[in-house]
Amino acid sequence: DLSYNNFTHQNPEQPACREIQNLNLNLFRSSSGDSNLSGVLPCRNNFKCDRYWHSLHINCGGNEVKVNGSTFEGDGQIGGGAATYHSQDDTNWGFSSSGDFTDDDDEQNRRYIATPDSSNLSELYINARIAPLSLTYFGYCLDNGNYTLSLHFAEVQFSNGITFFSLGRRLFDIYIQDKLVERNFDIKAEASGALKPVARPYNVTVTNHIIEIHFHWAGKGTTALPKRGVYGPLVSAISLNDPNFKPEKKKVVPIVVGVVAGLSLIILAFGILGWRYYLRTKRRKERGVGFF
């Protein structure tokens, strides 16, 4: 993971950018700095937004799911590893993960996703993305303005009860737009138990078409309960909405069709009346009936 090193930004022509799809290399800027497209989209110079979005919905660690009319795009198919960076051309978001669970007896660390053994949680909370050290979700090509951000959590690696499986504590910090909003955030304490969903709302301002939500483990909490390697940030879903945005109303085609149909009926009615008048006039002429 090279994201914490102050190296010169790579150009698209340089080897690291050309081989980024084949190398487990993370060039994303994880430390504080100016938020711009070159920071969140390394190796993509001269990037331009085709459109600007007013919302963002991500099911972290899960598959695509619809909730209350909103589609949460999933990242459950994305692997893990000590240096993970993900961004696709057909979306306006991505994430960067850094760190390694060195004490979990897993040398590959290919999947940084947490799933409970059994639970009645909904699909939005049943899976969660985890990270040993740093996890950053970013959205770009957003319209500037004020937004409502909701971070969704459910502690799925601990349990309730009086066994040692319930004794673990997960503590991590949350930054939004490089500002610390939660220090030593404890999901289990906020939700009053494990395997319970909880959402935290925040008012955020987007000024450069980008939003960054950064989760960071500062070395606090337990690391070996209920087993070794259970620590670090965990997030279930992210939703971002512009409360003042009103989509443009599309042209109402049925009204136009209705007007055309109405005019057609009027023309048809006049045609029928005219034809009847013609027939009556013709009959009267044939019978020699005069007109007044």
TrEMBL record:
The keyword Membrane applies. InterPro entries: Malectin_dom. Residues 55-238 form the Malectin domain. The chain crosses the membrane at residues 252-278. It holds the Pfam family Malectin. Keywords: Membrane, Transmembrane, Transmembrane helix. This is Malectin domain-containing protein. It comes from Citrus sinensis (Sweet orange).
